[in-house]
Amino acid sequence: MDVDSFGRTPAKGGNEQNQFQTPSSSRSTLFLSPNVSSNIAGKCLQGEAKVIRNGVADLVNLCTKWKNSHAESYDLFSSIIDHVASCDHPEGRPLFLLHFDKKLDKLSGQICVCLDGMESDVRSMRTILNRFKKCEELKNARTDESFSCLSPTGGEVNSNCLFYSWSIGEFVKHSDQVIKAYETQTELLKKLSIDAIGLERKEASGQDLNVFHLSAWLHNPYLTEQVESSLAMMQIETGLKKF
Q1: Of 174, 167, 138, which is closest to residue 59 (Cα–Cα)?
Q2: Is the pTM higher than 0.85?
Q3: Which residues contact 118 (CB under 8 A, 6 or more apart)?
Q4: What is the pLDDT of residue 90?
Q5: Using an 8 Å Cβ cutoff, are 71 and 200 in contact?
Q6: How many angstroms separate the CA atoms of 184 and 188, rounded?
Q7: What is the mean pLDDT of residues 211-229?
Q8: What is the average pLDDT across 72-101?
Q9: C-alpha to C-alpha distance for 210 and 200, rounded to whole angstroms
Q10: DSSP characters for the chain?
Q11: Residue 223 CB coordination number (10 Å)
């Protein structure tokens, strides 16, 4: 008996397009399309799938907003370094001149506003993660008997997946990794701003130290390729981004 690659047998009298029929008894061993495959990028999503997809979109937007704020804060930080360098005196500047430096006060205040905005973005990211965790708790609370299906690569996946192959737990894990990275990076920038601006107010810093501060601010050591990869995978899994 002829059998196709999916284990289906030819249907009698069927045309060439529909010559194979799927036995109902073999449902658990066939490749199943995603639970929301009818319109993964549309408005038909409901329940946890809708919450997760919208949450991933919000998370991506917040990461982009954070990066924009970081770029703005770097420009401000560069302005502070340039301003301090232009006022450098061979023997250092009197402390009282720095305390009454209005331009330095203004730039420092603008950086604080940027950092506050970045902290706010991270808190909003945490709110999204909490929603994901709630969805996972609700899903686990009403878990029914599930069956296994085959993924396109032949591996076995659980039918609890919302889209293609991920369960809600995968979204929780990857979003937590992304948020922790942005959270730690924001804390690092806060400490750097306190150290650098505080030093500028005490005395004129050398050229090497200025370059170090600028480089440290520009480079985001905690926003690794793995973080960007996790963010991209979440978008691909939910249909927000194509391969």
Answers
A1: 174
A2: no
A3: 66, 69, 70, 73, 186, 189
A4: 47
A5: no
A6: 6
A7: 89
A8: 66
A9: 10
A10: ----TTSPEEPTT--STT-EE--GGGGGGS----TTGGGTTSS---HHHHHHHHHHHHHHHHHHHHHHHHHHHHHHHHHHHHHHHHT--TT---HHHHHT-HHHHHHHHHHHHHHHHHHHHHHHHHHHHHHHHHHHHHHHHTPPP--EEE-TTS-EEETT-SSSS--HHHHHHHHHHHHHHHHHHHHHHHHHHHHHHHHHHHSPPPHHHHHHHHHHHH--TTS-HHHHHHHHHHHHHHTSS--
A11: 19
Q: How far apart are CA 155 and CA 169, in angstroms?
A: 19
How far, rounded to the nearest angstrom, does the alpha carbon of residue 231 sit from its chain's CA centroid?
Answer: 4
In the block, tokens 């331009």 appear at: 103
Q: Please state, in angstroms and rounded to a whole number, the distance separating the CA atoms of residues 208 and 119.
A: 29
Q: How confident is the model at residue 199 (pLDDT cuts 50, 70, 90)?
A: low
Residue with tokens 């130290």: 209
Q: In one letter, which amino acid is 20?
A: F
Confidence of residue 171 (pLDDT cuts 50, 70, 90): very high
**Token pair of 141 as six digits:** 């609370």
Angle at Cα 53 formed by Cα 47 and Cα 55, nearest 5°?
100
Distance CA(189)–CA(157), nearest Å, equals 41
